[in-house]
């Protein structure tokens, strides 16, 4: 037999036989010894003493000890306390009593051992629960320590990165800014929480940033915007603002992490480039006009000379005493031919200086307006003014040259911006589109400038007439020509509340 099996058998005997028997013997002997002196004081003391012994045996020794106590108690009661005394026989008058004693003893054994098992099970379950609670508490404490350590390391990392970093909760409320951001803003985190965070943006940029942030919160997508951010001294710098959501296990947004990237130098470079392009375009336009004028003068020299020569000849034929009507008529016909030739020369030179061939296509007028506004956004920001669009939804499609219409809008819009330069009132440019009549679109450009002088409002569309110190006086004249080529009309008027408004119409072809 293996040694491990030999060791287990004695342990089983001790646990399930020797120990219960010993407990039962001890309790029953104690009850027996107390019965002899107490029987002279009270009647039948053996009943409750032996019941107590049985109960104690079952409680401390289990079911086996309880039944052993029942057997021993029954034997002692039968021998010592039930007539005939000192005999294992039972008289008839005591049989019912003895039977009741045994049944009660068995019941006490069962109840007491069951109660003990239940209490032991409860105690064991309580101890196990306490151990599990302690283990879980230790795990939570360890997890909290790890989380706190991770947050501490993350904060150290954000402080080490030379960028402006912030964190917001799931609702978008800023709850943390690193030292670089707080140092730039010059205000504590308490003044940046909730809606107060939007106070750091320029007044012209704040609505767009707020709208984009709300859209990101609703869609749970990444957020990105360019805006001017105020520093502690009250000046502004351009920043690229980005934020991404951190999602929990259930897919909900747990928090947002954002960063501010300084793009001030990039913006300044873009503005400088745009100004250089504008200057180059203006110089190129002036050079093209000068070249076109020289070309027209060169090409028109011959036909105009011929026209003058033929005019002199015609006059001479008509001055003779005998009028030579035939020769005068022939000379007049030559004048007409040379004039037609001069017109053809002008058309040829215009086509030569046109950037591309004239094309017509079905176009969304509102789309052209929005495209022009995208081109002028940076210019409007540089001039510190805003542009408002009021566009009709039901504007019909037009068959136009989109490049030429875009040039008209650009020219009129830039003129409106120039008109508002240096004013102290509202600096807002409004562009409206609506349908005037069936088959006709009406566009208006309104400014808040000083308006147009009454003595010049009728002349502003004349070629080479200008009110600008360095103007060429051709912009509005070209605009009117383009509009009239599209079967429309261009005119201007002063607004009663101040400023000027330019209107032009374009007749639809589709």
Q: What's the quick description here?
A:
By secondary structure, the chain is α+β, with helices and mostly antiparallel strands. It has 10 helices and 12 strands. A 5-stranded antiparallel sheet has the order 2-1-5-4-3, sandwiched between helices.
List keywords for this structure.
510 residues; alpha+beta; Beta-Lactamase; Helix Hairpins; 5-stranded antiparallel β-sheet; 5-stranded mixed β-sheet; 16% strand
Task: Evaluate the radius of gyration.
Answer: 54 Å
Catalogue the unreliable spans.
none
| Strand-residue proportion | 15-25%
Q: How would you state the average pLDDT, rounded? A: 79
What is the number of beta strands? Answer: 12
Helix and strand pattern: HHHEEHHEEEHHEHEEHEEHEE
Architecture per CATH nomenclature, i.e. the level-2 architecture of the largest domain: 2-Layer Sandwich
Question: Helix segment count?
Answer: 10
């Amino acid at each position: 037999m293996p040694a491990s099996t030999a060791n287990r058998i004695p342990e089983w005997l001790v646990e399930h036989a020797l120990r219960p028997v010993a407990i039962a013997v001890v309790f029953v002997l104690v009850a027996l010894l107390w019965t002899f002196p107490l029987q002279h004081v009270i009647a039948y003391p053996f009943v409750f003493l032996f019941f107590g012994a049985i109960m104690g045996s079952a409680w401390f020794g289990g079911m086996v000890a309880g039944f052993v106590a029942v057997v021993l108690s029954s034997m002692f009661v039968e021998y010592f306390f039930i007539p005939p005394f000192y005999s294992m026989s039972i008289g008839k008058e005591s049989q019912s009593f003895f039977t009741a004693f045994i049944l009660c003893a068995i019941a006490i054994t069962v109840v007491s051992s069951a109660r003990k098992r239940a209490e032991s099970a409860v105690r064991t379950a309580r101890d196990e629960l306490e151990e599990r609670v302690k283990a879980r508490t230790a795990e939570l404490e360890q997890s909290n320590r790890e989380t706190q350590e991770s947050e501490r390391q993350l904060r150290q990392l954000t402080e080490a990165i030379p960028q402006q970093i912030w964190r917001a909760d799931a609702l978008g409320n800023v709850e943390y800014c690193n030292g670089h951001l707080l140092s730039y803003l010059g205000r504590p985190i308490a003044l940046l929480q909730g809606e107060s965070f939007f106070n750091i943006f320029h007044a012209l940029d704040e609505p767009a940033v707020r709208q984009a942030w709300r859209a990101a919160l609703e869609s749970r997508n990444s957020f990105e915007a360019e805006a001017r951010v105020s520093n502690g001294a009250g000046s502004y710098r351009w920043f690229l603002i980005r934020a991404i959501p951190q999602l929990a296990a259930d897919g909900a947004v747990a928090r947002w992490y954002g960063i501010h990237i300084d793009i001030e130098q990039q913006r300044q470079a873009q503005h400088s480039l745009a100004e250089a392009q504008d200057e180059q375009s203006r110089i190129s336009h002036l050079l093209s006009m000068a070249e076109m004028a020289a070309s027209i003068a060169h090409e028109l020299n011959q036909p105009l000379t011929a026209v003058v020569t033929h005019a002199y000849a015609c006059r001479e034929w008509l001055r003779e005493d005998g009028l030579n009507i035939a020769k005068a008529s022939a000379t007049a016909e030559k004048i007409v031919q040379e004039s037609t030739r001069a017109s053809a020369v002008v058309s040829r030179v215009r086509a030569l200086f046109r950037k591309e061939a004239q094309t017509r296509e079905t176009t969304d007028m509102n789309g052209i307006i929005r495209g022009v506004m995208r081109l002028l956004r940076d210019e409007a920001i540089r001039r510190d003014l805003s542009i408002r669009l009021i566009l009709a939804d039901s504007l019909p499609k037009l068959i136009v040259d989109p490049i030429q219409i875009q040039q008209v809008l650009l020219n009129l819009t830039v003129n409106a911006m120039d008109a508002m330069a240096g004013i102290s009132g509202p600096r807002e440019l409004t562009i409206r589109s609506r349908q005037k009549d069936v088959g006709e679109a009406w566009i208006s450009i309104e400014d808040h400038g000083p308006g147009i002088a009454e003595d010049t409002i009728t002349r502003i569309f004349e070629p080479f007439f200008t009110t600008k110190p360095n103007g060429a006086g051709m912009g509005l004249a070209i605009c009117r020509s383009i509009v009239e080529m599209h079967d429309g009309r261009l005119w201007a008027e002063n607004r009663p509340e101040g400023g000027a408004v330019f209107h032009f119409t374009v007749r639809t072809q589709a």
